[in-house]
Specification:
The chain is α/β, with parallel strands linked by helices and 317 residues long. It is built from 4 helices and 21 strands. It has a 10-stranded mixed β-sheet with strand order 2-3-5-7-9-11-13-15-17-19, with no helix packed on it. The chain has a 6-stranded parallel β-sheet with strand order 12-14-16-18-20-21, with no helix packed on it. Strands 6-8-10 form a 3-stranded parallel β-sheet, with no helix packed on it. The chain is elongated and about 105 Å long. The N terminus is likely disordered. It binds 2-acetamido-2-deoxy-beta-D-glucopyranose (2 copies). InterPro entries: Leu-rich_rpt (IPR001611), LRR_dom_sf (IPR032675), LRR_N_plant-typ (IPR013210), PGIP (IPR051848). Keywords: Leucine-rich repeat, Repeat, Signal. Belongs to the polygalacturonase-inhibiting protein family.
């Protein structure tokens, strides 16, 4: 018997065939045909890819194994991760984002596309994905208005990061339909118009970054039910005062940056109650009057001609 098993070519061939029969559903498993179609549509919207970020995206192969993609537990693509290497000048993608991606790859839940310099608009179908959880398309060159005229399907949408693009127009009120958001990063774009009052609905949001846009109007008096920890509105064109309900942020707020705007009025006395505040920047505004007792350095207050008292020079009697 032992001899019979010592490999004649026939036995080996038989073993191989058996092995392949058992393993083939694994070896040749393929991702869902809709996912493949959506991803290939995305690839065809990309006209240049000099570093080969998408070179493994080949029709007829399992798209779960393509670079940048993850399928969790079945044949559906759940994560898309494309990150340009900022130290490599050839690491970019020229082209636009095909809307077909989000119409076909319906199970996508985490989308990260960073530092790739993709242009065009953000297809609104992205907001209609039923399992959307994290959407990050940052440091690209997306432009045009941000359109969200769709009723959201996902109740676990946690984070929207579109910072470092070239979006114009106003921030749509409809963003606040995503009431579960914990973080919203729209900074470093060209958004204009006001900060939507509807943001008062973001009950659990901790990060709200709107700096480096062209936002105007006042800071809405909408903080009563908010628990922001990090709030940045610096480098905009905001005017008016710091509203009364801002005091409700006292228990949680750690970072508040509002420099380089046109804010007027006094710094409210209640700022003393912000025990957890680690960073405050009110510099380069038009604030006036005495500064309430503060632990913050002069840099937090400079550039406000009519502000006085420690750490600035004393107020004149
Ligand atoms: C992407 O765009 C930025 C801003 O225009 C530019 O500085 C950078 O060189 C571009 N990166 C690549 C890899 O083309
Ligand atoms: C906020 O978080 C709490 C606790 O996790 C949760 O019960 C509630 O539904 C959340 N609210 C929103 C609007 O996401």
């Amino acid at each position: 018997m032992a001899l019979a098993f010592t490999s004649t070519p026939h036995h080996l061939a038989l073993l191989l065939v058996l092995l392949l029969t058992v393993l083939s559903p694994l070896c040749f498993a393929k991702c869902h045909v809709d996912d493949e179609a959506g991803l290939l549509a995305f690839k065809s919207g990309i006209t240049r890819d000099p570093s080969g970020m998408l070179s493994s995206w080949i029709p007829g192969t399992d798209c779960c194994s393509w670079s940048g993609l993850t399928c969790i537990s079945n044949d559906r693509v759940t994560d898309l991760f494309l990150s340009g290497d900022t130290t490599n000048p050839n690491s970019f993608l020229t082209g636009t984002i095909s809307p077909s991606l989000f119409i076909k790859a319906r199970q996508l839940s985490r989308i990260f596309i960073e530092n790739t310099n993709i242009t065009g608009t953000l297809p609104k179908d992205i907001f209609n994905l039923p399992r959307l959880q994290f959407l990050t398309i940052r440091n690209n060159k997306l432009s045009g208005p941000l359109r969200i005229d769709i009723s959201p399907k996902s109740d676990r949408f946690q984070s929207l990061e579109l910072d470092g693009n070239q979006f114009t127009g106003s921030i749509p009120n409809s963003i606040s339909q995503f009431t579960h958001l914990l973080g919203l990063y729209l900074n470093d774009n060209k958004f204009s118009g006001g900060i939507p009052y509807s943001f008062r609905q973001f009950r659990n949001m901790t990060y709200l970054r709107l700096q480096n846009n062209q936002l105007s109007g006042g800071i809405p008096n909408f903080f009563k039910s908010l628990v922001l920890r990090d709030f940045d509105i610096s480098y905009n064109k905001l005017s008016g005062g710091i509203p009364p309900s801002f005091s409700f942020l006292a228990p949680e707020l750690q970072f508040f940056r509002a420099s380089h705007n046109a804010l007027t009025g006094r710094i409210p006395d209640y700022l003393r109650n912000f025990q957890t505040l680690d960073e405050l920047d009110l510099s380069y505004n038009r604030l006036s009057g005495p500064i309430p007792t503060t632990k913050f350095p002069v840099e937090s207050f400079i550039g406000n001609d009519r502000l006085c008292g420690f750490p600035l020079p004393p107020c004149k009697k």
